[in-house]
């Protein structure tokens, strides 16, 4: 039994939403712990062109918002 490639999961999720999407294309993966620029060569073949070394972009936005004393993240009232 092999594990699931977390980054490949982020990429593959796009095929669900965008049925017409076909390789070859560039993909920017931005999540809580990852920021990667990826060249998608085929459905199961990709090359990471660049990635953050420490903070992901989402973490950077959080830190900037906190420094600027912005109300982030916004809390919405549940209905």
Largest sheet descriptor: 3 strands, antiparallel
> What's the CATH architecture name?
2-Layer Sandwich
Measured distance between first and last alpha carbons: 42 Å
Order of helices and strands: HEEEH
Helix count, DSSP H or I runs of 4 or more residues: 2
- Beta-strand share of residues: 25-35%
Fourth CATH level, the homologous superfamily: ATPase, nucleotide binding domain
Task: Describe what you observe in this structure.
It is a single chain. The protein is an alpha+beta fold. It has a single domain (6-67), classed as ATPase, nucleotide binding domain (Nucleotidyltransferase, domain 5, 2-Layer Sandwich). The chain is 29% helix and 27% strand. It contains 2 helices and 3 strands. It has a 3-stranded antiparallel beta sheet with strand order 1-2-3, covered by helices on one side. It is elongated.
What tags apply to this protein structure?
79 residues, alpha+beta, Nucleotidyltransferase, domain 5, three-stranded antiparallel sheet, elongated
Give a quick summary of the entry.
The chain has 79 residues and is α+β, with helices and mostly antiparallel strands. It is 29% helix and 27% strand. It has a single domain, classed as 2-Layer Sandwich (Nucleotidyltransferase, domain 5), CATH 3.30.420.40.
């Amino acid at each position: 039994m092999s594990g699931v490639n977390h980054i490949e999961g982020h990429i593959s999720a796009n095929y669900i939403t965008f049925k017409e999407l076909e390789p070859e294309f560039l993909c920017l993966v931005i999540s809580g712990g990852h920021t990667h620029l990826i060249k998608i060569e085929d459905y199961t073949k990709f090359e990471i062109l660049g990635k953050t070394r420490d903070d992901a972009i989402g973490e950077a936005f959080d830190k900037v918002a906190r420094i600027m004393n912005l109300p982030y993240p916004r809390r919405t009232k549940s209905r």
